[in-house]
Design goal:
Length: about 260
Amino acid sequence: IVGETVYEDEQTMFICNTLQPGCNQACYDKAFPISHIRYWVFQIILVCTPSLCFITYSVHQSAKQRDRRYSFLYPMMEKDYSREGTRKLRNINGILVQHSDSGGGKDEPDCLEVKEIPNAPRGLLHGKSSKVRRQEGISRFYIIQVVFRNALEIGFLAGQYFLYGFSVPGIFECDRYPCLKEVECYVSRPTEKTVFLVFMFAVSGICVVLNLAELNHLGWRKIKAAIRGVQARRKSISEIRKKDMAHLSQQPNLGRTQSSESAYV
């Protein structure tokens, strides 16, 4: 918003000392291959994308784990309380609530007694292993998004340097076709644009340093372990698929044996 007023007359005030048709446009395209504002907007969108993906993934994993646990526990607890015949279970926004059958005039839920479910798996009620696995997956995804975010920051920082350098010149010399000779073009507000350019360099550099410090805090060993974990997971999934395919191929043809037995009968 602040830089919009600085760059709104960027092309109209880019004037070259020639009347040759098309020379101004050609020199402006050479001086600014892409506008500073559009480049920075594109940079912000791409750099924020890994963080948004991580937030979506973590929320989805938490909701999926909660629904998975509730979908298993609710039928068992409902069956247990239906035997007693005194209380009913209701699902209110994913929370199990007991209601008494006795008419009291007020439909107020009673407190739910926590009971041991004998048929429930141990890992579901005391789900330390599943919780650890979920946290490992989320931390692995977090490390990956930090690496991608840092790579994007470094890439945009290098691209900004090769496109514009560290300053915006007040006079730009151009000999690009269709200019008949080398002409001088005058850039509007060069000092102000230089300030914005240096500011964005500083912000991007600070972001890169913070990302590297975050990776150092997470530990390079954890990063290597996360990468190896992804590779091991892909390998285990492929092995399971191969075993399933081999198991399906070794199953006997039951339809043929039944038809042959019926023929003998």
